[in-house]
Amino acid sequence: MQRQKLNLLLLDADVIIFAHELGIWEQLIDACQISVTEIIISEATMWFDENDEQHAIDLSPLITAGKIQAVSVSLSQVINFRKRFNLVYLDGMHDGETEPLALLDSSDEKWKFCSGDAISFKVLGCLDKGNQGISLEEILHDCGLSVPSNQNLANHTKAYRQKCTRQGELDRLLGMAFHQD
Questions:
Q1: How many domains are contained in the chain?
Q2: What's the pLDDT at 1?
Q3: 57 in any annotated domain
Q4: What angle do CA 136, 49, 15 make, to 5 degrees?
Q5: What is the pLDDT of residues 22-81, one digit of tens each?
Q6: CATH of the domain at 37
Q7: Residue 33 CA: distances (Å) to CA of 47, 55, 59, 105, 173
Q8: Can you list the alpha helix ranges (DSSP code H) found in 33-150?
Q9: What is the distance of C-alpha 25 from the center of its chain?
Q10: What is the DSSP string of 60-77?
């Protein structure tokens, strides 16, 4: 039985790079409907193999061929999104996290955002949208894909995502995430 593709999946640059390092990028784009924001396209440009040799990543041909989708986020969406958070959160939130999170926050679509960065999942917890975060481990499981047995997923696991999301939820409840007027 063929599995249904995961839809509305936003990937952070670190996930794209890590998938290349694991040798599962092609399987991932075949198994999922992947979207990337413009900043992610400019950030996910290279990866290093086990011999420390550099390899280029060019998402443009995949976008042109319709294998992955580029999505735009307006500057006003990003500015309005960032205005909501205090300096502690803003210091950890770089452009690569901000753009997809701003899109997710302002959209009625049920995007899922995959990242290996703690701040991404903490922000989702703060926004009470923790269910819209997903780890690479969960994607691979849902798609019936596996990671080479000698690889460690580290900060790309379900447990890591859940821990960071809980921290964001706690920060929201304690008033430690959002900008106070």
A1: 1
A2: 46
A3: yes
A4: 20
A5: 999 999 999 999 999 999 999 999 999 889 999 999 999 999 999 999 999 999 999 999
A6: 3.40.50.1010
A7: 22, 24, 14, 19, 34
A8: 38-43, 60-64, 75-83, 87-92, 95-106, 118-126, 136-143
A9: 14
A10: HHHHHTTSEEEE---HHH
